[in-house]
Amino acid sequence: MDADSGVRTIERFILEREKEVPEATGELSTLLYDMCLAAKVIAAAIRRAGLVDILGSADNVNVQGEEQQKLDVFANEAIKNAMGHTGRVAVMASEEDEGPIPIPPDWPIGRYVVVFDPLDGSSNIDSNSSVGTIFSIYSRVTQDGQGTLEDLLQPGSKQVAAGYMMYGSSTMLVYTTGQGVHGFTLDPTIGEFVLSHEAIKIPAVGKYYSVNESNFARWDRGVQTAVRGFHGDLPERIVGKNSRYIGSFVADFHRNLINGGVFMYPADTKYANGKLRLLYEANPMAFLVEQAGGAATDGVTRIVDIVPESLHQRTPLVIGSRDDVEFVRTILTEDDA
After folding, report:
1. For position 256, which CATH number holds?
2. Same domain? 16 vs 107
């Protein structure tokens, strides 16, 4: 069907890219297909969420101390089932699980490591807002047997692939393997992800800033100054922007990736180390945005250079258009001087 219609499915696109890499084995490509399968399963459940008993709280909290939604649990299991039994994965980690997720002893062990946030923004589900999945893939660093914590605690600079799925008015999958950023939209008539956004580039200066300003009083002076700059209070240094904030990281990030903008979740007096998780939220999005020409820092330090010390380590995050991220870094550096 691809050859006749001109439609480029994600399978065709990945195979075309694979031919450009002589050492490629096809294993990573197949792992990305596995993630596509999980995305289709999750998207189908979200579309039917209001019709079946899948909305609302699961009457449980996850390792973060956050109330789990039923769809959190469903999405987590969908990804583990899609990825774990294929022989391509050595170990996994999820926002919803306290420790490493081992591959069952009777399943083959692979060479890749997968970390993921199965359903980012799940508190928005009951209000029918966009939610998403974030994932990151590494090559394992240990040699034999089950993957270990050492395989999981790698800096973001070691990622071999990363991406996200956004479940909104349409279902999109955006990913990178270090060869640019490409977006695919799920066509429900054929059940395939088809290329809709090739070689995405984020503008150097964005239209929008995205931050939860209800936390303003808890920020330090530098962060407050940077946000005032986005308001338009520092016209000699930066042009003011429009505020857009949904509260779903994937949705806010996607808008800024396409149109240009900066997303911030800084440290504050409640979350001294920030709120977002380094391994399965900040690192994958940082890899993506850098491949699209943008930048990501913890305010000062490049995100993918941070060496993680624990699975659920948190970090402040400033991510998006390059010049806007640099503006924040400059303000915070000046404030510390």
Report:
1. 3.40.190.80
2. yes
